[in-house]
Amino acid sequence: MNIQHEFWSGKSLKAAAILLAAPLILSCGGSGTAAGTGTSAGTPAAQAPAITTASAMGGAQMVTLQSATPGAAIYYTVDGSMPTTASTLYQAPFLVDSSLTVKAMATASGDTPSTVSSQSFTMQIASGTLVWSDEFTNTGSANAQPNPAVWTYDTGNSGWGNNELEDYCAWGANAAPCNAASPNAYVGTDSALHIVAQQPAPGTYTSARLKSQGLFSFQYGRVEARIQLPEQQGFWPAFWMLGNNIATVNWPACGEMDIAERVNAATTPDWNMGSVHGTGFTGTNLGTKYNFPAGETAAGWHTYGMIWKPGSVAYYIDDPSHPYATFTPSSISSLSGSVWPFDSGPSFFILNLAVGGNWPGAPTVSTTFPAQIVVDYVRIYTN
Predict the structure, then answer these.
(1) What span, in angstroms and rounded, lies between the C-alpha atoms of 347 and 43?
(2) What b/e string do you get for 274-309 counting C-beta neighbours within 10 Å, with b at 16 or more?
(3) Could you tell me if residue 15 is inside a domain?
(4) 97-108 pLDDT, tens per residue?
C-alpha cells in the first residue's frame, strides 16, 4: 500500500497521499436535477455531475457521480446543503440505504464551478438489513481471484513504517519473490478468502494486503467478518479501515479503525485488540484488549465486528449485543490536540497478514510457513 499502518502499540505510520477513487456506503429513487448558475462571462463552466443509480442489496441503491469535464473534481453533500469545495470530495460510487438528498458540484482548472446536481432518496430499510457483502463464493474447481470489483492490493517491501519483513504480492504477480503459481491471496474452493504468508527462501517472506480503496467504502453501519487468524511468533494479522480522505488529509487525520488485530502465538487467555486512531490519539491512546473465553483462541472461527454510528465506534466479537469497547468524542477530550475523524466521510477495508515488524518481532526457527488468515465473509448491515 502507499500508506503505512499505525497500530495500537505505537508504531510509526508514514502515510502518503493516495489519489485513488473509492466507492462508499452511506446510511440512506428519486429524480436528479441540476441547479445554480456556475458560469461567468467568458469563462466556461465545468459540466454538472450526472447522478446515476443501480439497485443494491436489501433495497439500497448504489450512486455514481460523474462529470463529463476531464479531470473535474466532484464535491457533494448528503444532508441537502449546497456543496462547496469544502464539502466531501467524491471518490467513487456509494451505497445509499436511508432517506437523504445528494447534492453535487464539479470544479476543474480554468473553469468556473458547475451547476449543482441534486437527487433525493426516500427509503425505509429496517435496522439489521444486510446491504452489502462479499461471501467469497467460488463454485469452480480451482482457486480464484478475489473479486477485482472490490479488492485491490498494496504491494512491495517498504516495511510500511513498522519495519515489517514481507513483500506484499498482488494476484497474478510473478516477479520474484512473488509467484503467480502460489498466490498469497485467493478465494479457495471452500468459498473462503485465504491470505497466505510464505517463505520462498531463507529470510524472504511474501504475503498479501488487500484493500477496497478505489473500489468500495462506506460510512456508518454494522460491519463484521468471520475470520480465523494465524498464531505464531512474527505474525501480525489485521482487519481494519482507513478514511477515504487520506487522499487529501493524510494519516492520522483520515482516521483508522482496527477491528481485528493481534500478534504472535496464542496466550492464555487469548486476545484481540480493538483500536481507533486519529489526530492526537495514535499509539496506545485508544485500544482495548478483548480476552477470549476460556478454551477459545483467535485461531478458531470468530466474528469480528464494528458498530459505527455518528459520534460512536464500538467493537464486538461474536455477539453484537455486547460490545467490549466503545469510543466517542468524549474518549479523546482529555488528549491534547485530538480531533475526532470518524464522522468526516466514508472509509475503506484492509485485510492483511504482516510478517515481522516492531510489534511482533521477527519469525523464529519455530515459526512455520505457509500460514494464513481465512475469511468466510465480510458483511455490512444497517444500524
Answers:
(1) 36
(2) bbbbbbbbbbebbbbebebeeebbbeeebbbbbbbb
(3) no
(4) 889 999 999 999
CA distances from residue 189 to 143, 194, 379 in whole angstroms, order as listed: 6, 10, 20
Residues forming beta bridges with residue 65, ordered by sequence position: 51
Q: How many domains does the chain have?
A: 2
Q: How far is CA 362 from CA 50, 236, 352, 359, in A?
A: 51, 10, 17, 9
Other Cβ atoms closer than 10 A to 331: 18
In this structure, the answer to whether residues 178 and 232 fall within a common structural domain is: yes
Rounded-to-integer distance, Cα 220 and Cα 210, Å: 21
On whether residue 11 sits in a domain, the answer given is no
DSSP 330: G
Q: Dig out the grid coordinates for 238 from the structure.
A: 489485521
Q: The domain spanning residue 70 has which CATH number?
A: 2.60.40
Q: In the predicted model, is pLDDT for residue 16 greater than 90?
A: no
SS3 of residue 355 by DSSP: strand
Stated length of the chain: 383
Higher pLDDT, 26 or 281: 281
Mean pLDDT, range 214-223, rounded to an integer: 90
- In the structure, what pLDDT confidence band is assigned to residue 27 with cuts at 50, 70 and 90? low
Residues 33 and 172 in one domain: no
What single DSSP character describes residue 61?
A: E
Helices marked H in the chain — which ranges?
Answer: 246-249
Q: For 122-146, how does the pLDDT look when each residue is reduced to its tens digit (9 = 90+)?
A: 999 999 999 999 999 999 999 999 9
Which residues, 6+ apart, have CB-to-CB distance to 230 below 8 Å?
197, 237, 299, 353, 371, 372, 373
**pLDDT confidence of 62, banded at 50, 70, 90?**
confident
Which phi and psi (to 5°) does residue 306 adopt?
Answer: -135, 135
Which residues are identified as catalytic? 256, 261
Q: DSSP for 74-102?
A: EEEESBSPPP-TTSEEP-S-EEE-SSEEE
Assess whether 201 and 320 both reside in one domain.
yes
Within this chain, do residues 136 and 108 fall inside the same structural domain, yes or no?
no
Separation of alpha carbons 293 and 295, rounded Å? 6
134 DSSP β-pair partners: 378
- Per the CB < 8 A criterion, the answer to whether 345 and 219 are in contact is yes
